[in-house]
Amino acid sequence: MIEVQQVTKQFGAFTALEDVSFRVEAGEVYGLLGENGAGKTTMMRMMATILRPTAGNIEVAGFSVIKEPNEVRRRIGILFGGDVGLYSRLTARENIAYFGSMYGMDRTAIEHRIKRLSQMLEMDSFLDRRVGPFSRGMKQKVAIARTLVHDPQVILLDEPTTGLDVTAANMFRQMIGTLQAEGKTILFSSHNMGEIDKLCKRIALIHQGRLQYAGTLQKLREQYGMQDLDDLFMTVVEGSGR
């Protein structure tokens, strides 16, 4: 469903990613693991057609991000960490509806999706309030709903639990399980090893722009004889010699 093929991304003389390849299967929750600055967000921006690979290619749902970017955009939902980019003067409902209209959804379809997402994310109590005064966690829920409003096949989540408290983060993990049961393909980026361990069976581990490992967590644990994912990460990184 997502195939990264020998991708390199340069910004001038700086190489953000170098010769990275991995594959995410349809219906899988796949972890993209690495410290801050490893290149995770750059990779996801290329998958979302915001950036163009310097070399190599990425296919999403069978479409090239280089040759068929519009087809890719129709099939993905993307949430980046950091600024959630909501319109502060609009209500949560209006923010979500606006993005639904951008995908060509009619009013009935939008309202149906908003109702479903509001229940899933427990947003009913603030759905019709302006988002300006919202807490970081409330805004993050609205941003997640906006990402999912058009019912995308492929969901790209870059540090999605930023700003969520323990209860909300647990609710988010339950939502991921629901989406996977619906057949969605989910790429989940994080430097939080606990989240990755709970949500993903397979991962790609990136350090300083280079792929260090792609495969199952079970195989990685067997390879190094360790169970703790934090220890595993540090062992792989230190072994990279970079």
Can you walk me through this structure?
The protein has 242 residues and is of the alpha/beta class. It has one domain (2-239): Rossmann fold. It contains nine helices and ten strands. The strands form two sheets. Strands 6-7-8-3-9-10 form a six-stranded mixed sheet, with helices on both faces. The chain is globular. The mean pLDDT is 92. Pfam families: ABC_tran (PF00005).
Number of strands: 10
Distance between the termini: 31 Å
Number of helix segments?
9
User: What is the CATH class designation?
Assistant: Alpha Beta
Number of domains: 1
Helix content: 25-40%
What brief labels describe this structure?
26% strand; Rossmann fold; globular; 6-stranded mixed beta sheet; 4-stranded antiparallel beta sheet
Compact overview of the structure:
The chain is α/β, with parallel strands linked by helices. The chain has 9 helices and 10 strands.
How would the blueprint of this fold be written?
Layout: E1 2-11, E2 14-24, E3 29-33, H1 40-47, E4 55-60, E5 63-64, H2 69-75, E6 76-79, H3 92-102, H4 107-121, H5 136-148, E7 154-158, H6 166-181, E8 185-190, H7 193-199, E9 202-207, E10 210-216, H8 217-224, H9 229-239
Parallel strand pairs: 3-8, 3-9, 6-7, 7-8
Antiparallel strand pairs: 1-2, 1-4, 4-5, 9-10
Helix pairs in contact: 3-4, 3-5
InterPro entries: AAA+_ATPase (IPR003593), ABC_transporter-like_ATP-bd (IPR003439), ABC_transporter_ATP-binding (IPR050763), P-loop_NTPase (IPR027417)
Pfam families: ABC_tran
Keywords: ATP-binding, Nucleotide-binding, Transport
